[in-house]
Every structure is written in structure tokens, then in C-alpha cells.
């Protein structure tokens, strides 16, 4: 009996000393990484969640600049350390029994080891340092292909020991979000390094970004791949029709789009085959039916893009009979329609990107993580994934992703404003600054903060630049910290109990910060002479 099985076993009559010894072993494993100053420091730093679209924007012809691999490696090291520290924090925040699960515990330790290896590269100053860092990142990619698979296995094993589904969902959302960003950043750096060293400057590729990405070609490639999987599984393949209304290429990460499309196509083709097998009785009749009706596609894919919209849409409409479950259930982790799930849930678990594609070739069945991961990845790029069921006919799936080539000047300005926010935020993280300079920086940042506060209300900037609810919460937290700093500084200047509000004035706006029953209300007022209007108000619970 393993230690984990022992902990899960109902306690009837046990030897007290043995039970204490078992618990102490778990505590020892957790304590290995609970006292590192660097870990605490990096886990408290914010994560820039708009990485994907910003990377694409940076690689556009208008913004392309010579690549400094040493600077790029140094930036990547810092971003990976922050994300790994956040992942470790999420593991440490799990309830005891899920945290003690051997599979999840091994992942916990792997993240710690990677964090320790990255801290070794304290400074990357020379080409030799950068080359060693490249080898480390290359090894990191090779050794981390199975992380998502182990997450799926570990959470399925410990699913009933989470206090609630919400806890497991938040844990997986956070770890998978960081996982995607680390993989994209690392892949992008590795490809840029190879292109620089080989002096292979291909106009079609810049790092891991295809500068002339064609959604239609990606869809066709995914259809071919999934069709071969479907034929290996069922010996039949339903006909899929493409209607492409988007002919202009755009810069994008092909791996992300293909990853999502393969998962969606597997679901549609499987539904079509199995639905018709039930209707017609056996697979030979299904094969004859598909051959006789090749002109009537049972699965149609539409690719559209509105010139006035910042998104392009890939919709998949299948005639697979629909699904009995409600839409939100389909996006729950660990939900699968596979009847063989109980027997095969721990074998061939889907990993990530390339490894996922290899393992997907072995079966059409799901493992309960496909759709939620696809939706999470779509949201990471400022898009969405939604389903619409047509009763007794099939399911329509809509994948919307940001089209960077259709962004307006206003939208680009909002993006630059967010970058100002990130830069201003970093200046506040230096704790050794002279307190006399704090107030000056607060005044300078007031316009940035007020503009971002408006964006919080409209929510326009967040879907566009890949910021999900997690990032919105992070921004709210920073606003609160910023306001607390301003108020503390004001109270230090004039320490009276009667100070109930604070005004911060810039050229265009005035921010009024007021207390009320433990809540801080922030009121932004325009100072423009043309229209003296009160802008949206938002509150922050203290």
C-alpha cells in the first residue's frame, strides 16, 4: 500500500505512531520549498497575461527590430521564474489530500527543480551564457511534454478529495494558463535562437509565429490529420466541407489554432460516426451511407472575418445528433463522453502540443480535459469558444480569435496604454526608493490609472489583448495597492483621523478616493473644458 493510499483509507484502528510518521513524510516533502526567499519574491510579482497577442504585435513588419538574444534570454528567464513560482504557489494552496497525491506531488517537485535551475542563471551577459540558457530551455521543453497528462491523471485520482469542484477548476485554470504561456515563450525563444544562429531569416516565420498564417490551410491540415485518426479507429471517415471567406493571411501561432481545431474536429467526427452507427445498425451500413452521400457534407466548417471586427471566426457545424448534456457541463474538467473512460483513463493521456498530436493518433476518445483547455487557450488570445446545440441534429462550435491585422488606431492606443500601466507598475516595485519621490510618481501615474480604470468598466481592452478574469483581478489588486500607497503617503504627511478622501489631479482628470464602510470608491472626473463629465466609478473592497 502506498503512502497516498494509506492516507485515503478510512481510519478504524491504526497505530498512532505509524500515522504520524506517514504524515511527517508528506510534510517534509512540502517543506523543501516553503522557505525560499526567491520563491516568495517571484510568486508575488504580477504576470503579464497578454503575452500572446503582444508577441504577435511585436513581430509585425511595422514593429520588427533587430533581435538581441542575450536580452531576450534574460527576459525569458524572469518571466519563467514568475510563472513557475505562481504554479508552485497554486500547488501549495491545494487541500491536503489532493496535494499529497503522488502524481501531483511529483509535478510540484518538478516545478521546484526547474525553478532552482533557472535561479542559477542570475545574470546572462555573454553569448556563452545565452548558449547555456538555450540548452536548459531546450531540455525544459523535452522534459515537460507530459505535464498536462500528469495533471489530468492526478486530478482525476484526487477529484473526490477536493473540497469543491471550484477549487479544482481554479487550480487547473491557473496552472494551465501559466503552462501555455511558458510553452509559447520558450518555443518562441528557441526558434528565434535557431534562426539567428543559422542566419535563416525567413519572411514567413519569426520565431514560433507564422507571419503569413492562413486559417483555411490550417483547417485543411487538421481535417487530414483527424481523418486519418478517424479511419484508424472506425474504418470510415465523414466528408467535411470548408467554406472560406477569409483569404488575407495574418501573423499567428499555428500550433495553438491547430491544437484547438484538432480537438474540435475529433469531437465532431466521432459524434457523426457513432450517431449514424446507432441509426443504421452497423459500421458497414455507415460506410455505404458516407460513400453514397459524399456531396452532402455532414460536417461543415466556415471561416469568416468582418473587416470592422477585430476577430476572425472558425465555426464547425456537425450533424452528430447533438449531446444530452448542457453546455457548461461539457466545459467541466474531467467530463468525457467516452464509455471506455473508466478502463483507459490513465493510459495515453493527452500531453501538450506536439506530444498531444502523437498520442491523439492512437484514439478518438477524450479524457475530460480537451474542451476546457481549448476554451482556456482561446481566451488567452483574446478569443472565445462557445457551443450551440441544435436539437436532434448536431452541435455548432464557434472559435473566435483576435485578428491583429484588423485592429484600429484606437485599439492600438489602448494596447500602448496597457504597456504604460505595466511600466508604471514596475517602478512601484522598487522598495528602496526615497519616499519623497513616491508622491511625484503617484501624480505622474494618475492619468494612466484613471484611463485603465475606465477600461475596467468597458472591458473592451481585456478581450482584445488576451486578458481574462484572472488578469482583471490582478489589475484590481494593483489599483488597490496603488491607492493604499497614495493614502498611506498622504496620511504620513498629514496624519489625522479626519482624512476621509484623497484627490489626485493630472492634466486631464481628477481621481477622488473616498472611504465608506471598508470599501474604497474611486471616482474619475474629467477636467476638460469642453465637457466636464463624471467618468465611471468603481469600488475596491479593502
TrEMBL record:
Alphabetized GO MF terms: ATP binding; pyruvate dehydrogenase (acetyl-transferring) kinase activity
Tell me the ranges covered by the Histidine kinase/HSP90-like ATPase domain, including all copies: 258-401
Give the EC number(s) under which this enzyme is classified.
2.7.11.-
Q: What is its main location?
A: mitochondrion
UniProt-listed GO biological process terms: regulation of glucose metabolic process
Q: Which domain of life is it from?
A: Eukaryota
InterPro entries linked to this entry? AK/P_DHK_N_sf, BCDHK/PDK_N, BCKD/PDK, HATPase_C_sf, HATPase_dom
Q: Which UniProt keywords apply?
A: ATP-binding, Kinase, Mitochondrion, Nucleotide-binding, Phosphoprotein, Transferase
Q: Where in the cell is it found?
A: Mitochondrion matrix
Record-annotated Branched-chain alpha-ketoacid dehydrogenase kinase/Pyruvate dehydrogenase kinase N-terminal domain positions = 61-210
Keyword flag Phosphoprotein: yes
Q: Which GO terms describe its cellular component?
A: mitochondrial matrix
Q: Which PANTHER family match?
A: [3-METHYL-2-OXOBUTANOATE DEHYDROGENASE [LIPOAMIDE]] KINASE, MITOCHONDRIAL (PTHR11947:SF20), PYRUVATE DEHYDROGENASE KINASE (PTHR11947)
Family, according to the entry, reads as follows: Belongs to the PDK/BCKDK protein kinase family.
- Name-wise, this protein is Protein-serine/threonine kinase
Amino acid at each position: 500500500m502506498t503512502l497516498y493510499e494509506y492516507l485515503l483509507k478510512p481510519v478504524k484502528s491504526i497505530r498512532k505512531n505509524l500515522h504520524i510518521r506517514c504524515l511527517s513524510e508528506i510534510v517534509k516533502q512540502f517543506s523543501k520549498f516553503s522557505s525560499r526567499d526567491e520563491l516568495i519574491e517571484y510568486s508575488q510579482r504580477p504576470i503579464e497575461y497578454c503575452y500572446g497577442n503582444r508577441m504577435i504585435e511585436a513581430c509585425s513588419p511595422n514593429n520588427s527590430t533587430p533581435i538581441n538574444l542575450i536580452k531576450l534570454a534574460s527576459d525569458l528567464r524572469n518571466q519563467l521564474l514568475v510563472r513557475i513560482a505562481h504554479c508552485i504557489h497554486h500547488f501549495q494552496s491545494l487541500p491536503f489530500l489532493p496535494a499529497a497525491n503522488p502524481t501531483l506531488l511529483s509535478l510540484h517537485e518538478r516545478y521546484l527543480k526547474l525553478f532552482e535551475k533557472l535561479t542559477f542563471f542570475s545574470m546572462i551577459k555573454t553569448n556563452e551564457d545565452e548558449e547555456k540558457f538555450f540548452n536548459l530551455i531546450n531540455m525544459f521543453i523535452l522534459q515537460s511534454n507530459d505535464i498536462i497528462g500528469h495533471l489530468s491523471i492526478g486530478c482525476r485520482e484526487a477529484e473526490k478529495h477536493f473540497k469543491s469542484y471550484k477549487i479544482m477548476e481554479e487550480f487547473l485554470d491557473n496552472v494551465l494558463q501559466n503552462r501555455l504561456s511558458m510553452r509559447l515563450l520558450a518555443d518562441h525563444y528557441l526558434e528565434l535562437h535557431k534562426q539567428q544562429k543559422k542566419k535563416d531569416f525567413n519572411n514567413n516565420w519569426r520565431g514560433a509565429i507564422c507571419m503569413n498564417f492562413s486559417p483555411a490551410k490550417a483547417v485543411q491540415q487538421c481535417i487530414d490529420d483527424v481523418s486519418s485518426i478517424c479511419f484508424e479507429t472506425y474504418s470510415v471517415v465523414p466528408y467535411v466541407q470548408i467554406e472560406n471567406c477569409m483569404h488575407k493571411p495574418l501573423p499567428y501561432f499555428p500550433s495553438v489554432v491547430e491544437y484547438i481545431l484538432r480537438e474540435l474536429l475529433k469531437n465532431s467526427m466521432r459524434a457523426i460516426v457513432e450517431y449514424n452507427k446507432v441509426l443504421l445498425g452497423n459500421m458497414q451500413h455507415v460506410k455505404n451511407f458516407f460513400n453514397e452521400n459524399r456531396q452532402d457534407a455532414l460536417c461543415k466548417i466556415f471561416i469568416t472575418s468582418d473587416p470592422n471586427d477585430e476577430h476572425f471566426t472558425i465555426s464547425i457545424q456537425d450533424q452528430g445528433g447533438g449531446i444530452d448534456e448542457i453546455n457548461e457541463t461539457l466545459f467541466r474538467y474531467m467530463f468525457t463522453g467516452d464509455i471506455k473512460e473508466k478502463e483507459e483513463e490513465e493510459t495515453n493521456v493527452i500531453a501538450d502540443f506536439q506530444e498531444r498530436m502523437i498520442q491523439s493518433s492512437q484514439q478518438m476518445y477524450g479524457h475530460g480535459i480537451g474542451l476546457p483547455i481549448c476554451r482556456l487557450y482561446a481566451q488567452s488570445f483574446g478569443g472565445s469558444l462557445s457551443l450551440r446545440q441544435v436539437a436532434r441534429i448536431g452541435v455548432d462550435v464557434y472559435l473566435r480569435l483576435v485578428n491583429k491585422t484588423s485592429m484600429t488606431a484606437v485599439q492600438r492606443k489602448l494596447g500602448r496604454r496597457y504597456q504604460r500601466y505595466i511600466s508604471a507598475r514596475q517602478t512601484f516595485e522598487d522598495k528602496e526608493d526615497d519616499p519623497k519621490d513616491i508622491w511625484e510618481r503617484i501624480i505622474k501615474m494618475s492619468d494612466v490609472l484613471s484611463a485603465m480604470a475606465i477600461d475596467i468598466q468597458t472591458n473592451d481592452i481585456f478581450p482584445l489583448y488576451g486578458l481574462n478574469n484572472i488578469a482583471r483581478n490582478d489589475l484590481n489588486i494593483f489599483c488597490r495597492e496603488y491607492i493604499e500607497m497614495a493614502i498611506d503617503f498622504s496620511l504620513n504627511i498629514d496624519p489625522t483621523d479626519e482624512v476621509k478622501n484623497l484627490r489626485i489631479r493630472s492634466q486631464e482628470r481628477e481621481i477622488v478616493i473616498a472611504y465608506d464602510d471598508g470599501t474604497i470608491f474611486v471616482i474619475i472626473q474629467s477636467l476638460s473644458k469642453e465637457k466636464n463629465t463624471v467618468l465611471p466609478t468603481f469600488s475596491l473592497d479593502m
